[in-house]
Amino acid sequence: IFFFFFSYSTVSKRMVENVGIIGTREEAQELYKALKDKNPLGYHAVVISDSIDEILASNNKITKVIIAKAIDTDTLMKITKRGLQTMTLVQAFEQAYEKIPVSLMDDDITVLILSKEKNIFYKLITRIFSITFSVIILIVTLPITFVTAIIIKLEDGRKIFYKQARVGKNHQQFLIWKFQSMKENAETSGAVWAEKNDPRITRFGQIIRKLHIDEIPQMINVIKGDITFVGPRPERPEFVSKLEEEVPYYFLRHSITPGFTGWAQIKYRYARTVDDSQDKFEYDLYYLKNRLPLC
Q: So what's the pLDDT on residue 43?
């Protein structure tokens, strides 16, 4: 066992790839600091500079150069002569953190996202799978649905289901279904961001939200085609209008069918501010760029 762990540790250290970063823009500095402390996917940043000569003169055994600025043919020739691999700053963020910073977005990436061809065959298969799986979930969770409905009704006699407007593909609005988890007249003053220990949530509502039981009725939306299982989580129209004003490229979330869950939900917490929403959107951008063209 000791030999196994010793061997694994030795191999892991050898697998760490030393990289140099050419370009000192803010995002490059951020990546450099992060890769000096950690080694996401085996990358270790050892030098950052605006000069390729300074990077190549480094005593460290660099095998890859992250390009974080516009470079000329002479610079590319020097990199090639040394036999070094290259990657863009966007690719580095994608590989190391599985997200794309909004500040690194450009029209080329936007066109790439929007130009993904929709494969009709795979879209049909996905649709059949979504409907079938949704029906199975609704049937399997019937006992939970029954108990949840009774408790909601007994708690204060409120409506069992809650329908809320969301923005879907091509900015089309639809009503998303949930189990009621908020107090009566919780938003009389208008839509507000969810928050930790949200006072609008009932005691039982806190339980079903924590266990995600409140989301079960959304299988109806999957069957209807409003959402699919995986995609950018649909947002409320009151927030979308503000986010599209303040977050560049936010409109791209609405280029595909939204999802019951998404990459941003896996990687990030509930959004409570515009800044949180931008952070989550950076994970959505990664999904949009790398997804299979099914929806």
A: 87
